[in-house]
Amino acid sequence: MICAEFLTKPKGDLVGFRISGHSGCGDEGTDIICAAVSSVAYMTANTITEILRVDAEVHAEEGYMLVRVPAELAKDCRTLFAGFKLHMLGLEEQYPENINVSYVEV
Predict the structure, then answer these.
(1) How far apart are CA 6 and CA 13, in angstroms?
(2) Which of 5, 42, 44, 65 can pair with 18 through a Cys bridge, CB separation 3.0 to 4.6 Å?
(3) Cross-strand bridge partners of residue 103
(4) pLDDT tens, 45-81?
(5) In sequence order, what are the residues at sequence separation of 6 or more whose Cβ sits closer than 8 angstroms to the Cβ of residue 23?
(6) Beta strands in 21-98 (DSSP E)
């Protein structure tokens, strides 16, 4: 299962996300759920670091990605995080046995 955790401040502001696991929906390289999640996660991370030029913490490896922005810069990424969250919630709705979205206060 893919676990997507949205990192929030106590007032609810999104400051990042952590994604781990695999959907188990297909063989490596042919899993459309993993491809969809990876694509939107990398697009979000790249937009934050390369387009918005936010100095974010980014770690990515097989089956894991962490993106976290400093709390004082969260407002600069608000719209992007909201779009990413909307996309992930839609995928969770379509594939509830393969994706779980949750929130973690940091």
Answers:
(1) 10
(2) 5
(3) 6
(4) 999 999 999 999 999 998 999 999 999 999 999 999 9
(5) 1, 2, 31, 33, 34, 37, 95, 98, 99
(6) 57-61, 64-68
Burial 32-57 (b: 16+ CB within 10 A, else e): ebbebbbebbeebbeebbeeeebebe
Give the tokens for residue 30.
Answer: 């042919």
CB atoms within 10 A of CB 7: 20
Phi, psi of 87 (to 5 degrees): -65, -45
Q: Which of 15, 18, 80, 4 minimizes the C-alpha distance to 43?
A: 80
Q: Which amino acid is at 82?
A: A
Q: What element of type H or E holds 64?
A: strand 64-68
DSSP code of residue 97: T
Report whether 4 contacts 99 (CB < 8 A): yes
Asked if residue 31 has pLDDT above 90, the reply is no
